[in-house]
């Protein structure tokens, strides 16, 4: 029996890279049915997805999302932030693994950023206290700290990881980041087989750049996770090559977090790898391991081979040529 | 005539690395007089420097500070944060320039992080709103945005820099980071010769790692600056090789921001380079360019030569041996 998956292709290059995934899933007969979610067209003053459509997303449980344009300014909330908040997708998981055939600073990076995904500076609470002074609330709750910490250790246990590092700035945010550390430390006690350490987020970023092998699984508050996951992606060739999953109690949305690249949209030039790798994470989440392994092998094969490369990787292949090369290896 | 400089040697390896600077300044007859500031011994519940001593720091205008231990938890404020706040040192300047002889990922990095240094999440305002939920205030004021933006463009103009990049997360913190962008953009209009761009801080960090040559002078809110300056330092060999200056209207404190390394304290093993480079920044701030150039040339000479290296750089020289090697090149 097939699983219904919410499909949110996104905008810009979104539809093209999403089509690539659909074609590859078809070719390997992955047992999923795509349920395309309608986005609100007039975003002014309202949410990017209507209450009816979000109910479909909720009912489907699992979804795949292509890149979406982030609105800057105005009253708009980004689609990513909206979905994470609406579905309480409390853990953002970003594995960062060196991709064969893509030459970067280090060739054996294997890191996982697990980011608290619902609060911190992302609570969206801001106001002008007196003219010219803005107060932005950073919220840290025991509940959110506990659940993301548990997820991090569970993830480490499940995938045979050796160490969890908690990144923080508790010397400055003594109460907020202090609470995050306290809860993570507490959870860690239940996983004696997994190493645990705490690092200042600034120091940790310097260490990551100088020697990424010092870390394994890293768990942290929202904003730090946003930055750290991009630092990690930068080490292995950018957001075009890194998958991402947003995990909640009942729902999970996997997404490509790179930009929607409006300049090359519709030109059949986009690289679908990030969304493909995200879809592979999704298949594993659905316990469809065979399909996941098969597609992953094909993607890695094509990248390692280096013959059919999209322009961002220095090649000249179109999105469809790259997709076909993967399909021919399935 | 000599200038009186507040001397805050710090703890751990602080006194040793500070002595190195004092010896080198003596050798080159730099016209400064050190005014050693007494730190409060019992830090419990009170500030790390007494009101009387802070008045001396204020009156001296310029100071040099070695590494200090950052208290975690309790009611303590870190010495760095205390001085920045107390003296309204609104701009934290961290040049990150590849050091000759130290092999790192890139060998021609030349970046300057200019960080807002008085507010943001560092305002220190936190409270528990309901049990288990902490609210931390991130403050962004027009005044603080304006002065740090002005400093960034003035710095770029003075040192012949080509571009200022403002890092932000205005898609999420629309009002707060939005205000920062608005003010920086406004100030930028007065400097038509200097390029200006805006980047999401997460994206920018990924770009910095993948290609640090994309940036020049970077200006940003407090917390981002804390992280970005460590990312930059990681690119050139760490905080042990990067200077820092805290600039205010009336005061300026130059400091080494690496840890106080209590494990090797008192063993004559510490590398004084970060404090030395900070003292060179200080000399330039005092318009003592000849002394600055002379010391800088000697430090670079010793590092490039690679014969007398401290342990952190893979050598076996003691702090005093390294200091003597520099003095012999003056
Ligand atoms: C688009 C933006 C709001 C989002 C974030 O900050 O979370 C993005 O940067 C990400 O990392 O998924
Ligand atoms: C010690 C700490 C409070 C400080 C900061 O976060 O500013 C340090 O990391 C720095 O960068 O100078």
Automatic annotation (TrEMBL), chains A, B:
Keywords: Magnesium, Metal-binding, NAD, Oxidoreductase, Transit peptide. InterPro entries: IsoCit/isopropylmalate_DH_CS (IPR019818), Isocitrate_DH_NAD (IPR004434), IsoPropMal-DH-like_dom (IPR024084). This is Isopropylmalate dehydrogenase-like domain-containing protein. GO terms for biological process: isocitrate metabolic process; tricarboxylic acid cycle. Its cofactor is Mg(2+); Mn(2+). GO terms for cellular component: mitochondrion. It comes from the Eukaryota. GO terms for molecular function: isocitrate dehydrogenase (NAD+) activity; magnesium ion binding; NAD binding. Belongs to the isocitrate and isopropylmalate dehydrogenases family. The keyword Oxidoreductase applies. Pfam families: Iso_dh. The keyword Signal does not apply. Residues 4-326 form the Isopropylmalate dehydrogenase-like domain.
